[in-house]
Amino acid sequence: xxxxxxxxxxxxxxxxxxxxxxxxxxxxxxxxxxxxxxxxxxxxxxxxxxxxxxxxxxxxxxxxxxxxxxxxxxxxxxxxxxxxxxxxxxxxxxxxxxxxxxxxxxxxxxxxxxxxxxxxxxxxxxxxxxxxxxxxxxxxxxxxxxxxxxxxxxxxxxxxxxxxxxxxxxxxxxxxxxxxxxxxxxxxxxxxxxxxxxxxxxxxxxxxxxxxxxxxxxxxxxxxxxxxxxxxxxxxxxxxxxxxxxxxxxxxxxxxxxxxxxxxxxxxxxxxxxxxxxxxxxxxxxxxxxxxxxxxxxxxxxxxxxxxxxxxxxxxxxxxxxxxxxxxxxxxxxxxxxxxxxxxxxxxxxxxxxxxxxxxxxxxxxxxxxxxxxxxxxxxxxxxxxxxxxxxxxxxxxxxxxxxxxxxxxxxxxxxxxxxxxxxxxxxxxxxxxxxxxxxxxxxxxxxxxxxxxxxxxxxxxxxxxxxxxxxxxxxxxxxxxxxxxxxxxxxxxxxxxxxxxxxxxxxxxxxxxxxxxxxxxxxxxxxxxxxxxxxxxxxxxxxxxxxxxxxxxxxxxxxxxxxxxxxxxxxxxxxxxxxxxxxxxxxxxxxxx
Length: 594
Ligand code: PEP
Ligand code: MG
Description:
By secondary structure, the chain is α/β, with parallel strands linked by helices. The protein has 23 helices and 16 strands. The chain is globular and about 80 Å long.
């Protein structure tokens, strides 16, 4: 038995075995708190200044060395650099040290606590995120004050990186070739560490609460990114067992990647398109390497975040043109801005909404901020001249929104025409179906658009009434809930009866237990995270349409999630034993919640 076995959230698949290297440990409860003599106050302020300067110098250095695959994460470092210069943090800490005559570590902690108190009164996710950044930046300074800053560059050989939390600067600053696996005390499914680990294909587990007690530098560690486990100093038997699993996973991975350029066609000849969801044009090479047949969802929020000014039409046009030209002749669907809920723009400041997910989000936000929307529409239209671009509107609840959005698009087209700027007048225009209202009137909406894309992340949130960002209710996030399956089927049928294309771009598209059911519905395309494409394509290629239709029929007769889960597990495990042994932990056969 391993000396310690701790569990967390698996966020990047794979197995890694190696020696532990702690990048940092939690500071809470460890910071020295001392009163200092009046004469010593200046030297505490000097220590603080020196630590801020050191932190800044290190970030500037990291900024210079950002590897190409992480280029688009540079802006996070910029925002941390800005915070290091912010008088609300630095100046406030200096004042506190001076007025209370306390040591630098304590002064900075108090300054952060004060800021937190002010922000706590504002119930806004944007502010919460910024506060988290302030804490990250302050901890970087405090680690320096404690003299605990590790020279990560000096790390010898490859290692498993362990940390209380990994700041983007830490991750980017590490030589990515040297990271075998990652485990952190903090972090959730959508944490920055997870996104980076997945981008780099490094096995990772986050939210491992007792990690810092369980492991030390130099311990032999296994990261199980499939089941979310960290084994510290494993015994021989565990090492052999994990070495086998690692080989099996790597063999499986190599074989699916080898066949990923083949079409997603079932044994009996049913063809489905498998596209990719991306946020950055830099991901296009990963899309192509993993057999993506195009981009089914390009999320456009990222160029609006972490900046105080709005992007210009030219800036957006360059971005979309580059995207379309690089992926051509494959297709790309650009989604108009889905701002609001958990994503806010500094430009508009925090919005005080009691229920942001039910608030001024997505198309509602765009129809309120028409100039901004028009700028984006013009940029997308101009990029459409490449010929492979489609556009879709998020969070549509009814016909009026589609008509308003289309009327603004017509205005933009007229302007471009008058200016002699080319665009594709036939560019397909679709909508995301992600609200229960849109499902119910799908056959009406289908008359108005060229395609549907079902957004199950939000459809599940709004249909089952569960906040998708709230861990407390994540057990109710059930894609195989009878209500969800019936909703998806209703939308697919409505699209097909009207003769328009229908795709699905929520996380459900990368769930091997759901895809055969979607195939049974004869969905035209699915769009998913690029790294999951090879595994899903393999499942499609090994399936028979007849069996998928059969499975769907049986599933639609079931009355509870538990029953559906059991049926799906049995049927799908029988058909794809190899594929699914790696996904076993994904399926919860719990009967709770319907
Ligand atoms: C969805 O809601 O399923 C979706 C794909 O969009 P997002 O996750 O960006 O809301
Ligand atoms: Mg959505």
